[in-house]
Write a structure and sequence with these properties.
- The protein has two domains: 193 residues, Spore Coat Polysaccharide Biosynthesis Protein SpsA, Chain A (Alpha-Beta Complex); 182 residues, CDP-alcohol phosphotransferase transmembrane (TM) domain (Four Helix Bundle (Hemerythrin (Met), subunit A), Up-down Bundle), CATH 1.20.120.1760.
- Helix content is 52%, strand content 12%.
- The protein has 17 helices and eleven strands.
- The strands form three sheets. The protein has a seven-stranded mixed β-sheet, with helices on both faces. It has a two-stranded antiparallel sheet with strand order 2-3.
- Helix 2 links the parallel strand 4 and strand 5.
- Helix 10 packs parallel to helix 13 and helix 13 runs antiparallel to helix 14.
Length: 405
C-alpha cells in the first residue's frame, strides 16, 4: 500500500486580492511547496492537490515540485481525487494552510487509519476546527481511499476537507494529541501572511543551525545569512552554489601553481561561504543535505590540491621544505578525520579544517609572511589532531580484565 497525500489548496487567504492560502510565501517558496515536501519526507509517494482554480503562482509552485522529483497531481473535485487513489491505500489529509514539523506528519503516517492529529481546545483559536469540547483538529488526518470515495459521493455543496474530517470522527478515528510533544508550538493554520511570520523565522533559524566549524558560525555566518535570504526566493539551486564553490577552489589551486599567490588565496576564500549557503538553501527547501552531494566530497580534495600547490610555489622562493610541511599538514588533517569519524569530541567546532586554515593564512599573507602562514597552518593542524585524539581516547572506557584475556 502506497501512502498518498491529499493537500487542500482551494481556500482564499485574508490578504488583499484574495490569493490562495497555498501560495502565501514561506521561506523563499510557497506554503504548498513546504506542505508537499513535508508529506514526501513522511513517506508519501504521490501528492494530490485538491484545487478549484489554478492561478499562475500555484502552477509555478507545482512545476517546481515536479522538477524536484515529486509526483504531483491535480484534482478539481473530491470525486476526481477519489478516482486517483486505490480504496485500500492510506491517505494523508493536509488541511488548507497547515504548517507543522516533519515529526507531526511522520507520527500520523505511522498510525493505522483512521487517525487524527489534535490540539487542546484551550491552546488554539478558531482557525483549528473543533472536534469536541476539549479538542480541535491540528490539520492532519489519516484516512483511506475508500473513505474518500464514500465522502465524495455524498458531498453536494459541502466543504470536502471538513466533510472528510467529520466522516473520520464518526468512524471512530484515533485521536493523537500533540499536547506535550516536541514541536507542538509550531503547528499553524495560516489564513494570512502575518500567520507565517513566526514560522518563517523559525525555519530560517533552523536552516542555519548545526554549522560544524567556528569559521562558519562566527565569521561567515552573517555572509551566508544575507546571501541565503537573497537567493531563497529565486531559481538558484544548492547544486549551482556548490558548483561555484568547486570552480573557485579549482581556479585558486591553479593560480597557486602559476605563483599568483594572492589571486589563489582570494579565490579560495571566496569559496568558503558557498557550501554553507548551499546547505542553508537545501534545508530551507527540505532537499537532501549537501553532505551527500558529489561536489561536497570533491571540495576538500581540491582544497588539499590547492594547499599543495601553495607549498610548491612558496618552495620556489624559500626552499622545498615547504612542500614537506604541506604534506605533513595534510596527513594530520586526514588522520584527524579518521580519528573523529562517528565521534563528537569536546571542542569539535574548533578543530582544523579547510575554511579555518585558509582564513588563518590571510593575516600572514597581508604581512607578506607566506612561509610563516604555512607554518601556522601546520601547527594548527597538528594541534587539532592531537587534541582530537586525546578527546576521543578520553571518552573510550578502559578494557576490562576479561576483555584483556
Amino acid at each position: 500500500m502506497a501512502l498518498t497525500a491529499l493537500i487542500s489548496a482551494y481556500q482564499e487567504s485574508g490578504e488583499p486580492g484574495g490569493p490562495l492560502r497555498a501560495v502565501l510565501p514561506l521561506a523563499g517558496r510557497t506554503l504548498i511547496e513546504r506542505q508537499a515536501k513535508l508529506a514526501a519526507l513522511a513517506g508519501a509517494r504521490r501528492i494530490l492537490v485538491l484545487v478549484e482554480r489554478v492561478p499562475p503562482e500555484l502552477l509555478a509552485a507545482l512545476d517546481r515540485l515536479r522538477r524536484d522529483g515529486l509526483a504531483v497531481l491535480l484534482a478539481r473535485s473530491a470525486e476526481e481525487a477519489a478516482g486517483q487513489v486505490d480504496p485500500s491505500d492510506p491517505l494523508l489529509l493536509v488541511a488548507d494552510g497547515f504548517i507543522g514539523d516533519e515529526c507531526h506528519l511522520r507520527r500520523l503516517a505511522a498510525a493505522v487509519p483512521p487517525a487524527l492529529l489534535t490540539v487542546p481546545d484551550a491552546s488554539v483559536d478558531d482557525r483549528f476546527e473543533r472536534i469536541d469540547a476539549e479538542s480541535r483538529w491540528a490539520g492532519l488526518a489519516l484516512v483511506d481511499g475508500a473513505m474518500l470515495a464514500e465522502t465524495a459521493s455524498m458531498l453536494r455543496d459541502w466543504d470536502p476537507q471538513s466533510t472528510l474530517l467529520r466522516r473520520a470522527v464518526q468512524s471512530g478515528a484515533r485521536m493523537l494529541s500533540v499536547q506535550g510533544e516536541a514541536g507542538a508550538g509550531n503547528l499553524i493554520i495560516a489564513e494570512r501572511l502575518a500567520d507565517l511570520s513566526r514560522v518563517h523565522r523559525g525555519i530560517v533559524d533552523r536552516a542555519a543551525s548545526g554549522r560544524g566549524d567556528w569559521i562558519s558560525q562566527y565569521l561567515l555566518g552573517p555572509i551566508e545569512r544575507v546571501a541565503t535570504h537573497a537567493l531563497m526566493g529565486g531559481a538558484v539551486t544548492p547544486l549551482a552554489v556548490g558548483l561555484a564553490a568547486v570552480a573557485l577552489t579549482a581556479l585558486g589551486a591553479a593560480a597557486f601553481v602559476w605563483h599568483y599567490l594572492w589571486v589563489g588565496l582570494l579565490l579560495m576564500l571566496l569559496a568558503t561561504p558557498l557550501d554553507g549557503i548551499a546547505d542553508r538553501l537545501a534545508r530551507l527547501r527540505l532537499e537532501e543535505g549537501v553532505g551527500t552531494s558529489w561536489w561536497c566530497h570533491l571540495l576538500p580534495a581540491l582544497a588539499a590540491a590547492g594547499l599543495f600547490a601553495l607549498g610548491l610555489s612558496i618552495g620556489r622562493v624559500h626552499g622545498w621544505g615547504s612542500i614537506l610541511l604541506v604534506a605533513v599538514l595534510l596527513l594530520f588533517l586526514l588522520a584527524q578525520r579518521f580519528e573523529i569519524e562517528g565521534e563528537e569530541p569536546r571542542g569539535l567546532i574548533f578543530l582544523a579544517e579547510r575554511k579555518g586554515l585558509l582564513w588563518l593564512l590571510l593575516p600572514f599573507a597581508i604581512a607578506g609572511y607566506w612561509l610563516a602562514g604555512l607554518f601556522a597552518m601546520f601547527v594548527y593542524a597538528a594541534g587539532s589532531f592531537f587534541w582530537a585524539q586525546r578527546a576521543v581516547r578520553a571518552g573510550v572506557p578502559p578494557a576490562s580484565a576479561g576483555d584483556q584475556d
